[in-house]
Amino acid sequence: MKRRELITLLGGGAVAWPLSGRAQQTERIRRVGVLIGLAEDDPDAKARLAALRQGLEKLGWSEGRNIHLDVHYALPANEQQVQMRVKELLAAGPDVAVAQTTALTAAIRRESRNVPIVFVAVGDPIGAGFIASLARPGGNLTGLTLYDSSVTGKWLAMLKEIDPRVTRAAFIINPKTSSFPFLARETESMAQSLAIELTLCTIENAGDIGRVIESFAGLPNGGLVFPPNATTTANRDLIVALAAKYRLPAVYAWREFVTAGGLLSYGTNFVELFRQTGTYVDRILRGSLPADLPVQAPTRYETVLNLKTAKALDLTLPAGLLAAVDEVIE
After folding, report:
1. Is the pTM value of this prediction over 0.85?
2. How far apart are CA 277 and CA 279, in angstroms?
3. What are the contacts of 306-311 at 24+ separation with CB within 8 A?
4. From its phi and psi, is residue 21 left (phi > 0), alpha (psi between -120 and 50) or beta?
5. Distance from C-alpha of 120 to C-alpha of 118, rounded to nearest angstrom
6. Alpha-carbon Rg of the chain, whole angstroms?
7. How many CA atoms lie within 13 A of 43 on its CB side?
8. pLDDT at 183 over 90
């Protein structure tokens, strides 16, 4: 096509098009460093990153046009890997950093007190020393917590609901978890109201997990509760296998345990949480200070049930529980 024919075809748009092109070329691309607490090939990691991108796109941020995401992955229990990824993230000079979990948020904060940080899924940001208060964070961090206080007692209540025979429960967690005191206190209170004998079992590695579950399984009518914790998440296949071996009903905080063969989970919908994170990134990139953005709790929780595991444990599932389930894995 000759140049004269092209101009005729485009009409008035021929004048506006080059101006628009120049405007896009000169638009500043903002950098967002993202640190996800899962392996790069984990399907859940991909889903969470996609949700963050969707949340940003709805607010006018498009990769390649006005934003670039530097994405890194690190397992919170692997301190050497975490330190390496944090240094890589900060070396890129991000305008905002997004960090999932308490451990990854703390790692970025240790390296920089200047870069705005949006945390995702932090159990107790006040107890961890990240913020002064939920309403007025006061520093360079803000974001979304892992749960509100009502969730903690729910795990134990659901264990009793799915297996009324349970009179003993082991609450298994790494005591180095920043929210450990809060979680333990709330769960002990719920145990008293349900007339369940609660054993707080502290673990730090796979060997501890094996010893604790084997010892607890020696007496009847027991069940297991696994609150959010990087150590247990990293060893979820071992935990699921031991629960099956000793025929112990177990309630988990994450759906990943249930997809691995665990019985039941109740917890934060991480995909939705990452989608909400886009709002914080947007506000900061447009000039808001993290200190002025209130920390929020999740707005959606999900219940996931593994029907095959329930059948293997000979459980009769209550109608009320089945009605509340968001996803059934068969």
Report:
1. no
2. 5
3. 306/258, 306/259, 306/261, 306/262, 306/263, 306/264, 308/261, 309/244, 309/258, 309/261, 309/262, 309/263, 310/162, 310/263, 310/264
4. alpha
5. 7
6. 23
7. 4
8. no
